[in-house]
Queue: 2 jobs
Job 1
Amino acid sequence: MVLLENDSFLTELTRLFQKCRSSGSVVITLKKYDGRTKPTPRKGNPDTFEPSDNKCLIRASEGKKKISTVVNTKEVIKFQMAYSNLLRAHMDGLKKKDKKSKSKKTKAT
Amino acid sequence: MPYYQTWEEFSRAAEKLYLTDPMKVRVVLKYRHCDGNLCIKVTDNAVCLQYKTDQAQDVKKIEKLHGKLMRLMVSKETHSGSMDTD
């Protein structure tokens, strides 16, 4: 699992989407993160870790390749804008609903 | 593991589930371009909410919910212990 900076993560995510256009799926996971880098100690051992409250972890994978990044409050606005644009730009293979088209109205000659 | 039929219900249930335990809940998004569908799952490993779609109009909704939850996660929550002004 590769941990990247926010910008590199977005670049790599773009590549993942492009790679999966013909086959495969892109899986993105989002979770609140408290900044732990060490495993929780067993009972009896003091937990000398101060959980922070302002981070989230984002992971992406296309089955084989995995990438991840940590976003905190200061970066979230910028990241979220770029991330939304990315999603909207790439998730375009879905059906467009146009039942409203009055297709019965063919030009009567 | 039920798939919700309406976005409204799913969205409300997802936010509610997140607020019960932010640390436990994760959001999973799976997109398949070749099949043209998108599936979103919100779970705390006990309850699992899912929504599936193949409609382009849902992409925006899903992406908005994603962003909303992301912002909730990074904001320092000082709720449950509301700001008492003493």
Job 2
Amino acid sequence: MQEDCLLKLTGIEKRFPGVLALHNVDFTLRKGEIHALMGENGAGKSTLIKILTGVYPMDKGTVTVEGQVVHIGSPQDAQNNGISTVYQEITLCPNLTVAENMFIGRDNAAFVKQKDYEKRADEILKSLQIPAGAKKQLGNCSLAVQQMVAIARAVDMQCKVLILDEPTSSLDDKEVNMLFSLMRDLRERGVGIVFVTHFLEQVYEVCDRITVLRNGELVGEYLVQDLPQVQLVAKMMGKELDELNNLSDTEEKKHKTGDVLYEAENLSSSDALPFDFSIRKGEVNGFTGLLGSGRSESVRAIFGADKVNGGTVKIKGKPVKITKPIDAMKNGIGYLAEDRKRDGIIADLSVRENIILALQVMNGFFKPISRSESEAFADEYIKALNIKTASRETPIGSLSGGNQQKVLLARWLLTHPEYLILDEPTRGIDVGTKLEIQKLVLKLAEDDVSVTFISSEVEEMLRTCSRLIVMRDRHIVGELKGSDLNQAQVMKTIAGGEAKNEE
Amino acid sequence: MKNKKKFFNADLSQLAIPLIAIALLFIFNIFRDISFFSIGVTTNNDGNLVLTGNLISIINGASELAVLAMGMTLVTAACGGQDISVGAAAAIAGSVFVKVLKSSPSINGGTVILAFLCSCVVAIIFGSFNGSLVAVFKIQPMIATLILYTCGRSIAYWINGGATPTVESPIISAWGSYIPGIPVPTPVLIVIIVAILFKLVFRFTSLELLTQSVGINGSAARLNGINTTFIKLLSFIILGLCVAVAGSIGVSRLGLINHETLLLDVEMDAILAVAIGGNNLGGGKFKISGSIIGAYVIQMLTITLYAMKVSSTDVKAYKAIVIIILVVIGSPVVKSKFSKFMGQIRSKKIEASEKGAAKA
């Protein structure tokens, strides 16, 4: 057993300012196995991979490759130790040929031996059964082939450990199968593959072992056949299934709900498959599902954040057209985006300016909010939401994650929405703020605001939502209410429900 | 009180570089030759009492640059890139200005206004052309405006059939040099008016907030309902208006349009003024006032060099040396090193005072 051990990580710890990203994590990869690294967002998967590839230095722990303790201080170190990574986004050069991409930057020869490269590339591609010609320009190949070329490059560099970070997320079924047969082929050759994905089915199709991380800690390492899908979901989300059954949520939800506020039929966007959805006045509902299940894409379609392709939308029974965010805002919808940094904060602007932004846009170009007015708004919400900031003129970028999120909440609350969509409002923020945000959601509902709440933490959603829409692989697979609102039921639905909105 | 102080500091930190630059130029000139600053009153050819002196020629000479720098600041902030066609566009606007004046039977107030409005319309059309390439087709600003940069002066050539026509009128000379009875050059007044107009636009619209939001985080701006395409386009249209103003000043100064030389290479100085003004050329937060000071820094540098009898062929080389120093000082790397250094000094001071206290 021990001889087979290719890569061993022990006691890995990594601390970022204010967060313990990894705590005492072990990971073992054996020769000739495909090992899935699983965990919800923020579990520490990407941090672990970045440590392994030399992007981040680790604070504690040891890495051994084939029994030798090694130090990985840079991506170059990782490569020298036979660890190669292929990322979700192709990091090769699309305007070079396949052969050039496979050999670029690998030797310091002054002259490029074009012919040699092409010959060798063809040999490697052939032996790996990759359907690509060495002379073809990489950008003209399909994404799957590009990914395979990246893998071929890694294989030819004598890699022992191959890390595939979400390689399948932009591939279609046929391409995925091609990739899988390549992975199996490499397994035969004794390469150890670390496979990171959000698609549960794929794990069971191709992997031998699963390591689950949660909140920066190791949950455990399992053989695939020992861990049924439902249990995997449970482990990723944080409760043992038996425990959950005993702990069925008996808490009474007393949301008063009124008339239907928002109603969508067959709504679809460039990123979301058609779905039906409605929400009542003062109702709190949630979209749940693992990452990549389409929950964010669906609510983005409601807000008009992506290109809306079709469907009818009614607000208070009246048909409306929502194709871009401003339409949604004018109809009383607010949307707190999932990625706070990318889609939420305007980092260099002050807390005050960030708070008034959405209201200012709604007021229109020629009705600027005066300085004194905006200061009053900022002060009001800094106090009401208990935002910790040096002053209202502090750039929002220098606030902690939780306080940034509160500023963004303030931004939407200031527009007095009738329907507020909160996509992962509690991600990456401390427990105290999480509770504050949950309380705020319930208070909003009392004030007759409808809220859609999305969170990777099911407990949180169970605590706040009176209805849960469950998604898997971009389809709505169930809707849970009343006594069905418990962790066990949610996980069962995520793991094995039937798709309701077929293509 | 505390808040006010902070606000002042934040304001000043962006203007630090241009203010320090202008202060250094002042100090340098004081030691070099104090008479550099002397301002006299003389009677000019038209019989007006006018102010003269190096300082006057600095603020007068920088007028076109200052106006263009203001517009360039907005484009830079919204699009994260620069318009390199402003010189060529000004030649077109100036040619239109002259063409309209030339084709009207007599030059009076009405025809000058008409000519100016026509040049504004043309400049806006070319601005929208650049703007739509950038905002709609998402072409990098420098590439998009390269087109007009290349062909602009040819278009200006066609407008007046290749000639360099002159226009003579008291109104034109009043626009380009002095209004009778006012000793301050008119271009200086125009800069003040344009600056006030910018201030008013920022006061009565939400342009400043929206432009900064688009420049800092376009994706978030879009999700907050901002029409990012419109904001970018608008910045180019406003720059177009600035181009028309600068073109009309340039034409009126000489009373003729030379499509080859009018505001030649001004685009580079305008971009420089924006940079010296402490504005991030990658877009985002901006200060119009910084760019205006930046324009004056550039002009003062030029005039200082001329006053030192540096030959006009050498001026550019010396200018480049000073500018590279300014830009390096203003770079984020130096800034963060400097603030770290200051932090160390501060903590050492605190340590020392704590030790002193412990001893006592």
